[in-house]
Amino acid sequence: MAHLQLNKVTKIYEKNTYAVRDISFSVQDKAFVVLVGPSGCGKTTILRLVAGLDDITDGEILIDTVRVNDMPPKERDIAMVFQNYALYPHMTVFDNMAFGLKMRKYPAEKIKQHVHDAAEILGITDLLDRLPRQLSGGQRQRVAVGRAIVRQPRLFLFDEPLSNLDAKLRVQMRAELARLHKRFQATIIYVTHDQIEAMTLGEKIVVLSNGTVQQIADPTELYKHPRNKFIAGFIGTPPMNFLKGFINETGETMSFRHPDIELHLNRKFRDYANQEVIVGIRPTDFSLKHGSPIQLTVDVIEPMGSELYIYGRRNSTMLTARLDEQHRPNTGENITLRIDPDKLYLFDACNEETLL
Question: CA-to-CA distance for 155 and 15, rounded, in angstroms?
């Protein structure tokens, strides 16, 4: 496998349009790293630069300490799995998986062994004689992954490989990819816009926005300690609620005042007294019993089995909360939710960096 290092990598298209700017991160040998962010943030561009499909404008890419900026794709020993499978429609599954090895002049017996080993791992041995049009979406995706596996490359690049699958199959394929990583101890970079995929697959996650790195951390660190408001709102389902207002201090009493909502605070907020700030509340942190009260009128209820997503409003302010099914309110009902001040997130109102 391989160790990958990106040092201040920049890609500029025509008219000074930056696709990515000063991207720096490392992928350790045998690691599973996920690049996540909204559409247009530069995720796929980074993969293409690593694979050698696009030229770098500035910076450098190192694979096992070797600078590969000017190295052609075929010499980088990288396998890439795309969103659209890219299978040859006139070839059987076996021939699709064997194609790369045949181009490298592997012996026929070795090709057969590699293909059958990969097919057994992926559970597609009985599909080797079929054509792609005779396969389901999930089966085609397995073939695409198998085609990458048989090459035994130093580095795997996955570009949103599960986005064309239905929700149930996507969950199954996520589990299969995680198992494959453990079995092969492969070095993997995985691109997705789905933060749930990122959180469940990634050992380390690189969060991108507008072509720049926002934060690099493991899933728990990202969720509990987001570096800024963008990350706090992007990571977590349902997304975090945000309220802009002022922190007031009256004697020993601290409070956060928003046009529609007032929250009682503890003394840990005293350093930000009389400042305009943004308060963040995760829907999962609301309670019915403990903390500062917030009265809402329930607009929409989304049953999710054992829990509910409640969408409510206080005047013109909308909030989302997650509750247990047993506490289900009615649409139009006024309810009182509570939030522990220790569970509040605090962001600077100007630069949106995390304060608490």
Answer: 33
Contact 319, 281 (CB under 8 A): yes
Model confidence at 350: pLDDT above 90: yes
pLDDT tens digits for range 131-167: 999 998 888 888 988 888 888 888 999 999 888 778 8
Question: 287-319 pLDDT, tens per residue?
Answer: 998 899 999 999 999 999 889 999 999 999 999
pLDDT in tens, 226-260: 999 999 999 998 999 999 999 999 888 899 999 99
The one-letter amino acid at 139: Q
pLDDT in tens, 265-281: 988 899 999 999 999 99
Angle between helices 167-184 and 108-122 (to 10 degrees): 130
Residue 52: closest CA among 153, 136, 166 = 153
Please report, as a single letter, which amino acid is at residue 133. R
**Which pTM was predicted?**
0.91
Q: What are phi and psi of 273, to 5 degrees?
A: -60, 140
Residue 97 tokens read as 């998986």
Distances in whole angstroms, Cα of residue 118 to Cα of each of 150, 172, 185, 196, 255? 6, 18, 15, 27, 60
Distance of CA 188 to the CA centre of its chain: 14
Q: What is the spatial order of strands in the sheet that 58-63 belongs to?
A: 17-27, 4-13, 58-63, 66-67
Check if the beta carbon of residue 201 is closer than 8 Å to that of residue 173: no
Closest by CA position to 347, among listed 258, 239, 229: 229
Distance CA 181, CA 175 (A): 10
- The contacts of residue 57 (CB under 8 Å, 6+ apart) are 10, 11, 12
Give the model confidence (pLDDT) of 166-195 as tens digits: 888 888 888 888 888 888 888 999 999 999
d(CA 318, CA 336): 14
Contacts of 68 (CB under 8 A, 6+ apart): 52, 61, 62, 76
